[in-house]
Amino acid sequence: MVAVPSSYFGGTCGLCGNFNEDSEDEMTLSDGTQASSVEDWAESWRDPSCQDDCEDQETLQDTAGCGEFRWKGSLNILGEKEGDSHRDLPTGAWELLPSPPIICICLEILPGFCRNTQISSNLHFVQKFSPCKAFTKTTPNSTDLNLPGNSPRAKGFAKKPAPNSSGLREPFANRCHRRPLHLLQVNGAFVELPFTQKGQFELYHSGVHGFVRTVFGLRVSFDWYSYARVILPDDYAGAVCGLCGNANRNADDDFVTREGKRAVDEIQLANSWKVGDVPGCSAGCVGDCPVCNQKQKQLYRGDGYCGVIARAGGPFRACHNAVDPTPFLEDCAFDACHYKGHRDTLCKAIAAYVTECQSRGINVEQWRTPSFCGPSCPPHSHYELCGSSCPATCRVRAVPEGCASVLCTEGCFCDEGFVLSGDECVPAGECGCEHRDRYYKKGEDFYASCRERCRCKANGAVECEEVFCSAHEECRVEDGVLGCYPAGYGRLVVSGDPHYVTFDGRAFDLQGSCTYVLARLCKPERRLTNFSVLLEHDVGGRGKVALMKKVVIFIHGYTVSMERGRKWEVTVDRERYTLPLVTEDKKLRIGQEGNNVVLQSAAGLRLLYNVATYLLVTIPDSYRGRVCGLGGNYNGDPGDDFQLPGGSLAQSTEEFITSWKMPVKDGACTDGCDGKVCPVCDATDAAPYGASDSCGLIRDPAGPFGPCHPRVSPVEYFNHCLHDVCAANGARDVLCHSLQAYVAACQAAGAEIGGWRTTTFCPLSCPPHSHYELCTRTCDFTCASLSVPAPCSWTCFEGCQCDDGYLFDGEACVSLEQCGCMYQGRYFKAGETIISSNCSKKCNCHLSQGLVCEEIRCPPDEVCATRDGVQQCVKREGRCRVSPGASLTTFDGAGGRLLASGTYKVTALCNEQSPNWFKVVVDVSECRDDSIPAAVAVFIFFREAFITVNNNMEVWVNGLFTRLPTAVSKAVSLSAVAGNITVSHTSGMDVLFSPSGEVTVTVGAALVNQLCAPCGNFNGDPSDDLKLPDGRTVRNIAEVVDAWKARDFAG
């Protein structure tokens, strides 16, 4: 029987009819016309993969109106067929069971999707195998289908089983995108477990597995990693098709294609049932194809690996008579061999046998030890070999019926006093809320509907308020969460020499070598996240053209830097990270996608940089009219894009560009072409580069980029290419970068392009054990993707892809046994040691042991600092202050008041012969408006300059009045920020003078024990700061300061 709710009235088609209360138009063909006979009508809706006759099955009984649909007949209970053969399958995505399901071998009984509606009790399994691997074998099965292990086979690697019942879409997990959390989706939205759709299905968590149980008897379990099990109800025996066969207890007829013919080989079978392509996947092995022969697998059948499964007298001996261990041993050896003994892969393969035994009520003995598959459980939980199959959850009234069918199960279980809140163990008093039959964690904000936003508070209370999406947003489910999302995005592009195209489409060129504000929020609003993007240029290469050097993004409290030429790497808060990276708060996801580094933020800002000559910044429509910078204001009008920071319009492009220039600390920058008019190629010189074998390839409608033209206009990219290639006198690398910029723009826009690189035209060099692909998801092929979800954004990009059996370990492709470790969203290369958490933890990534961490502390005289992108304990940064009230604090912390007003030498480099010598002199006086003694002037001496700053914040350099910011030399620079004057020297010394009369001298670790004068020697010991120039120790700081009076100044 199939029952559909009234919401499907008039929206169905198929043998059940259209459900419109008119029985006269039931016999409608699939093309919408009326059938002339019952036979024609039935034939029209026949599944093409089914046989042409029903053999001995009974026929369909017509029922008026088709509100119910019944099948008469009997089917035998079928069990798992032993001795099934193993066949190799290619990677990809295949349909295991057809959609909608068949209960007669030749007839579909469910209505189709005539109006894009989802029909109740629609059963659809899709098994997507990992693009990471091409290690394959298959075991066709019957009613009880097991999918253990990490290889794409029917008893093998499960990438994403997605049972579809009543619109249920459930991406449990996958090998290349394994979710660390137990997340499930119903109709595209994530739900917390346990979850029940009344009268249809229930979802629950038990041990290491997630379970689906439907009212019509389907059962699915998955361990969130690699082991899936599907049990069909009896009525489906002999009535299904797909990779898993027909469940008729005869393995010999399982290899049937969608067309109903016997497959010649596993490749043909798999391709027949493939329902979707995965970028980067192929029908066969590519590159250095991994092979494991029987001799190589023998090692992994031993006791040190998989042998524990079948060992006589081993922990599983009580199960051997009930569940043959041989197939599980072979599957484990197959996986372990191809994955080179990868720890997680091996342990999950063994755990598959444990699950099978426990599902049959057989107890096994402890098999995990600290050194062999040692269990790791999340906070407030512990491992049990035989724990409750119905664990306590915050949803006391929602204990699923199905879990009680298993006596016990292996897994992580909450500690005493804690219960499951979704996928976390929380104190019983910290449970969340139930709202409209759904569970939400405490503190969680959620949309109950498009007009109602709620928050789960303490004691199960739910507070809701009426909300409306803004003018530039729409309510929809995105990434599994219902909410208000941008209706569209603005695009800012920088490419080539560089050439800019603002959010509103205005184009201009910039030849400067400075740092500029590319875009930032300048009209804040409560719902908008503050951000800014800076772009640094430098001048170099052919024709002294300006090139992108560094992109810096400030958002969500992070500072992220990407530099030209540095693939697979970013700097976050001055610390260097190997990609991919997901921050602990999940607000930033950064990954390598093809040739590009891609940043995604929770605020909706996305940035793509190919670490060469192309940068794309996209922001949500909610930022319309509220941004500023070189990217314009994004208000839809390109005519007012050239706004100055104050809001007025610039009189020229040069004025606009200069107004968004950032002050430089360590040297001068130029506005391009040494202040002269930049040279331009005339039409005659540029003409040859417009040919189809050069820049003309971009706009050639019959060329490889033709399909992209409707998505991304080729006009600007063609003109930019002409400009850059002509300026570089036809240099091939400049041409290739120009073409690559258009390719990135096309693929980011979702357009398909044709192959354009050849071995002689713009070939892309790839590292060993990898090859070029026009469309690949690089993020799926990383060592990190073995453990955490890959932070992929767009569909695919061109770039290098590791050969089968290898994964990206940063930019290099390594074999799986050489992969490193993941910790809190961060990837560690094998053998790498990282100090983190403000130098409180040191972690080392071991190939065999995984990540091993220990608690550490910096010595008392050191502090945690980031040097060259790495946290480390260093001699602390020293600060010496002369504060209002005439008090002084040394670098090492000694302090006291001065005796009187005067001019004092406060610090200097002891080595007066050093080229980095400096001296700082402070004039302290009571002659101020507030009569409080404080600094009224600072005098700083360098080898190359003498700088004076007075209490009016006026600056003189070598006696000449100077406006800021300025670079005095390569070593000395001056800047003004928030009213303060800062003088910086490359030796690591900064002097900050504030209008309040406070002077702060800051020195770095490089100056430890090299300083003289009252600020001390900066050696970490305050006890030796009370010394006079002659070495004598005195009682207080005042005597020291008085002894260091500047004799070359009067008063």
From TrEMBL:
| SMART domains in alphabetical order | C8, VWC_out, VWD
Species, as recorded: Circaetus pectoralis (black-chested snake-eagle)
Q: Where is this region: Disordered?
A: 143-169
Main location as per UniProt: secreted
The protein here is known as FCGBP protein
Q: Which UniProt keywords apply?
A: Disulfide bond, Glycoprotein, Repeat, Secreted
Q: Where in the cell is it found?
A: Secreted
Q: Which CDD domains match?
A: TIL
**Limits of the VWFD domain:** 1-55, 104-282, 490-670, 878-1051
Check the record and name the Pfam families matching this protein.
C8, TIL, TILa, VWD
InterPro entries, per database record: Mucin_vWF_Thrombospondin_sf, Ser_inhib-like_sf, TIL_dom, TILa_dom, VWF/SSPO/ZAN-like_Cys-rich_dom, VWF_dom, VWF_type-D
Which GO cellular component terms are attached?
extracellular region
PROSITE patterns (alphabetical): VWFD
